[in-house]
Design brief:
With 326 residues, this protein is an alpha/beta fold. Helices cover 43% and strands 17% of the residues. The chain starts with a strand and ends in a 6-residue tail after the last helix. The mean pLDDT is 92. Catalyzes the NAD(+)-dependent oxidation of L-threonine to 2-amino-3-ketobutyrate, mediating L-threonine catabolism. One of its GO terms (biological process) is L-threonine catabolic process.
């Protein structure tokens, strides 16, 4: 979670790929004491020292309510979820966290008149959806529990907005690429791991076929889109759930771009049936024209800029950790 108060926000699931960076950006705008990061894990020392952190379990409604009431929370960012490949390995746990946890958050937001942001995903689409590009409104019918839970969240949020006026906002994220955290079990995570492998062993074994095209985004674009969307005036929004897009590439395309900087990189392909089937059911590109029109969304990173930045960040990270850099 991320909690925001006056504006005070609570981030739950805040130690994942997205939470820490978004909390930092919000703290720069609203003051570090006005943004509370939370998770069920012990935070690293640097994250703990960055600003307020609390333990929060998305399945513990009483504790969440106490946090919201005692801290006078006004915004809630809900990042707690099991991702696609991990969710398929443990459907029962994914259903509990992704759906039961979501209902706790929805009830909490309604009860306390919170502004609620819940991310959705490329995984909310399925094999019968338009793939190139996928529009905001179309047949979805995903085939993973992760995707099913996200469609459920989109529709529940929209329903509660129309019935009770809940300020629910949702962005469908593409694959998000970041150097700050380890891959977390998503189908697009090869696009993070390949940078670590390029500067480490010099070899990457990819679990997708080389021509598998998926929409991707640099994490700073993802954070900026989230904040701009959260701050957008209600009157600007024609939807409660929007696609956001930046770039779309295949494993062989990103490998070719990396080789402009690390010529010795080699890549072999060993498609994993579970992840490949998931990727084949997802859009190749997002149509985000509504986000661009309604609240002015525009990405800053293309593929060359993303690759240059990721290599710099991963190299610095490896150097600081005393790891060799190829």
């Amino acid at each position: 979670f991320i909690f925001v108060y006056h504006i005070l926000s609570l981030f739950e699931g805040g130690l994942g790929q997205l939470g820490v960076g978004l909390a930092q950006m919000l703290r720069e705008q609203y003051g570090k004491e006005n943004v509370i990061l939370s998770d069920i894990k012990r935070p690293p020392a640097d994250v703990f020292n960055m600003g307020p952190f609390v333990y929060a379990d998305v399945l513990d409604y009483k504790n969440l309510r106490e946090l919201v009431v005692n801290n006078r929370i006004t915004w809630l960012v809900h990042y707690s979820a099991l991702l696609s490949a991990v969710g398929e390995a443990n459907v029962t746990l994914a259903r509990t966290i992704n759906i039961t946890g979501l209902h706790n958050v929805l009830d909490l937001a309604l009860e306390n008149c919170l502004r609620l942001f819940v991310p959705s995903t490329i995984g909310a689409f399925g094999p019968s959806s338009p793939r190139d590009p996928a529009p905001d409104l179309c047949i979805q019918r995903p085939r993973t529990i992760y995707g099913v839970s996200k469609v459920h969240g989109e529709l529940m949020g929209e329903y509660l907005h129309h019935k009770y006026g809940l300020d629910f906002r949702c962005l469908r994220y593409p694959g998000v690429i970041s150097a700050t955290t380890k891959p977390g079990g998503g189908t697009t995570d090869y696009a993070v791991q390949i940078f670590h492998d390029a500067l480490g062993s010099g070899h990457h074994e990819c679990y997708l076929r080389p021509q598998t095209r998926l929409p991707m985004m640099h994490i700073s674009d993802c954070h900026r889109a989230t904040i701009e969307f959260m701050q957008a005036d209600e009157c600007q929004l024609s939807l409660r759930t929007y696609n956001i897009a930046a770039i779309s590439f295949t494993p062989e395309e990103v490998a070719a771009e990396i080789r402009k900087h690390v010529p010795q990189l080699t890549v072999t392909y060993k498609p994993d049936p579970v992840r490949q089937n998931i990727a084949d059911s997802w859009p190749m590109r997002f149509d985000d024209s509504n986000a661009r029109r309604d609240w002015g969304w525009k990405p800053a990173y293309g593929l060359p800029e993303l690759v240059t930045d990721m290599l710099d960040r991963v190299q610095n990270k490896r150097t600081n950790a005393g790891l060799p850099v190829s």
